[in-house]
Amino acid sequence: MRYLVTGGAGFVGSHVVLALLDAGHDVVVLDNLSTGYRKAVPAGVTFHKVDLLDYAATSAVVGQGAWDGVLHFAALSLVGDSMRDPFYYLRQNYLTALNLVQICVEHSVKKIVFSSTAALFGGPERLGPIPETAPVQPGSPYGESKFMIERVLNWADAIYGLRSACLRYFNAAGADPQGRAGEDHRPETHLIPLTVDAALGRRSALKLFGTDYPTRDGSCIRDYIHVTDLADAHVRALGQIDHRSVTYNIGNGQGYSNLEVLQSVERVSGRKVPWEAAPRREGDPAFLVADSTALKNDTGWAPRFGSIDSIVETALLWRKKNPNGYEV
């Protein structure tokens, strides 16, 4: 099969590219490199540096089909930044996706997999796993932008027959077990790489945002999904949308608190993690854990790296091997 991956130079997108290549598919990557890295795109993969806001340039790439599907990852993704600059987030994420979906329709693309988010469920607190049927109540403009795109895909299916898989994943983490790709954000905001860097002495004391949540130790609880398991779910989802659109939550189904992540990094690295308490971040719910029953039942998917220690281990190994990330 032949697939186009937007945002394929980013963290999740680059791991999905590897999963598609490992499955024997032909992959083309489109990315504007605003947050991704050219070095994250494997050798031999055709790469186009294009911004999805550039309708003509995007259309020219999609026009190089035929495609068996498009996988869309290119987006801004920081909850805190979206709270500080909501209109920018709403505009960027929505318009880039709207352009892509319209172009896919114009070029007769039949299938699209969309990188959605658990931030759709950021409203009133829930203390149990979240199914796809849970009320959508975004707690941030970032989450709202993703839901707006889901609605675009709904109408693209209803009117034009563009089938979609909306994958609402929780906290992507870890790195390719073979060391081919990893996590490198500038600035880094994700807890596991921040904690790894603190353990390795690469940054000052880690800040844990909020220690007074109604959880077992007062810190936020999140469902960490290994990025390789997440990539596997994308490949499997492609097989589900030949005749119908689907929506899946993707996570391990168990949550780890911020403090438990810190303790895992200490166990795996054998080093103490310096840390200090900080105020809550606006838009952060106390508890986000996925119910992935629908994905498992439909595709047979199951996480291979389910424990927090296995996730941390791959993140730590990649960071040790690539202390400067993709910038060697």
From TrEMBL:
GO terms for biological process: galactose catabolic process via UDP-galactose, Leloir pathway. CDD domains: UDP_G4E_1_SDR_e. Pfam families: Epimerase. Pathway: Carbohydrate metabolism; galactose metabolism. Gene3D superfamilies: NAD(P)-binding Rossmann-like Domain, UDP-galactose 4-epimerase, domain 1. Belongs to the NAD(P)-dependent epimerase/dehydratase family. Homodimer. This is UDP-glucose 4-epimerase. It comes from Brytella acorum. The gene is galE.
